[in-house]
Specification:
Elements lengths: L6 H4 L1 H13 L1 H10 L7 E3 L2 E5 L6 E6 L8 E3 L10 H20 L30 E3 L2 E3 L40 H29 L22
Antiparallel strand pairs: 1-4, 2-3, 5-6
Length: about 230
Amino acid sequence: MTEPMPVGVVLPGVLAEVVDRAGRGYQRWAELVAQAGYCHHPIRLAGRVEHADRHTGEVRTVYDSEREPDGVLLKACGTRRESRCPSCAATYRADAYQLLAAGLKGGKGVPETISEHPRLFVTFTAPSFGKVHSRKAQGRLVLPCHPHRQGARCPHGLRDGCWYRHDEDDPRLGEPLCPSCYGSRAQVLWNALAPELWRRTTIAVQRALGRLVGLQEGEPRRLVRISRKPVCPM
């Protein structure tokens, strides 16, 4: 049984590069990684910053990415998807919590008297247009798509469910179980009319809340504000 050959023998330049990087630029590289929040997929920026003196016209370079390890400046990707970057997703969740907490109990420039104001978190859900293939998971356990009784059929003769445990990249995800049963026209109408429906809903809600706090018709409604936009189903 042959012994594995050292890395320096197989790839002569790799070992020298590793040693050079560890001795020359590792500390700065570690600082850049920390500044980027240990992002898994950082954005690599290349360029320089120059300042010009207004009086003399002298231009001098105050920063150049060429001085950084690999010649780039690392910036966090900022994604909300934990599957892509757990560190950036955690930062987003923490920021979102601070914003909500400040709006409920004060802080971050918001007075503590805000906690005395009434507030509601309301969810408006679009109607269902029919069954579609979906991936249901509880931790590492992937559940059947749409369990159904053995032999059950839809009005068009197709199986009334799906026992398949879909992968994340399954092309069937989002497709109707039965195209004829699925309300495609209703979905199109809903998406087309959702902005107007939302506009009328917010007007009705503002009027109802205004009456609850004693505002008369035509009075300023600064104390009542709807600050959320709908998400239309695709």
